[in-house]
Amino acid sequence: MAIQQIDPGMAPYQILDVEGKLVGEMPDLSAERLLSLYRYMQLGRAFSNKIIALQRQGRATTFGSLVGQEATAVGLAAPLQPQDWLATSYRELISLMVKGLPLPTLIYAFRGFTPEHYPSEIHCLPIQIVIGTQMLHAVGLAMAAKISGDKTVAVGVCGDGATSEGDFNEALNFAGVFQAPVVLVVQNNGWAISVPRHKQSAAPTLAARGAGFGIPSVLVDGNDILAVYAVMQQAIERARAGQGPTLVETLTYRIGAHTTADDPTRYRSPEEVEAWRAKDPLTRFKRFLLSRDMFDEEQDRQLIAAVEEEINEAVSVAETMPPMAPDSFFDYTSASLSPRLQEQRADLLRYVETGQGE
Fold this sequence. Notes:
It contains twelve helices and seven strands. It has helices spanning about 30-55, 70-75, 95-100, 105-110, 135-150, 165-180, 210, 225-240, 270-275, 280-290, 295-320, 340-355; strands at about 85, 155-160, 180-190, 190, 195, 215-220, 245-250.
């Protein structure tokens, strides 16, 4: 395939159809690598289900389900090299796992804490909650690499709702003008909380916005792990070779609720959900792997059991990690605190100690 401007009538790029049958050109991946991608997808789904269960028990904070979006999350991160940067929202936690973020660190964050030693070597920014701002961060990281002359690429990922934010469009404009080595990915899962995609934009696709900023774009089947991987691999290689940014839209679906504070039955029909459940990215990829005799049903069950055990062990580790100190967030603000911030820290500590702030 070639990166190109989006034709409004173009079908999303696809390598595996819904039944898991090969309909496009396979990326050059070993059987071991293919099974690794499948394992990450299973890890992400099990992780999502586990954190939601912990939230219902009062052992975790509000959480956004990852179910249904595993192919995009794994496929967008898998082609990255260790020095490449990744800036995500809360819906791309599996991408962080692929990049090397330890599970206990991620689970600790969903206890409501910031890890004291966030692993900088994985080159992932902390999860962004402010909608869309991570796209600007990704462009900034890419420009820093370009100015320094190294071959680092940055990837920024947001949801379809974030494309209505000014930050998203400003990121596209800056990246296009300065030819930043960045790939900007939109996970179009159909809904921005309760707002459907068709109320977000009158454009035929969100990828079509790239043309207005002089950026080549790709529309891809986001439930097809091989298609997402192939598109991202090419876009990342373009950026690394100095050929500038790419906008990628992945068509996928959020099977679960927006977060554990949401009731999706109030705004979407069961028929819509079931229609997308039939396009389950895990089922699709599993059928492909089985058809290639890369594993069998018993090995699949063993893989899922191993994933569950890994997550349970990570939960045990995370729940033994001590809570962060109440004033520790000041340590992440700046290299040295201004007098005003020093006063605020002292006031907070007085409040914690005595319950009497000033």
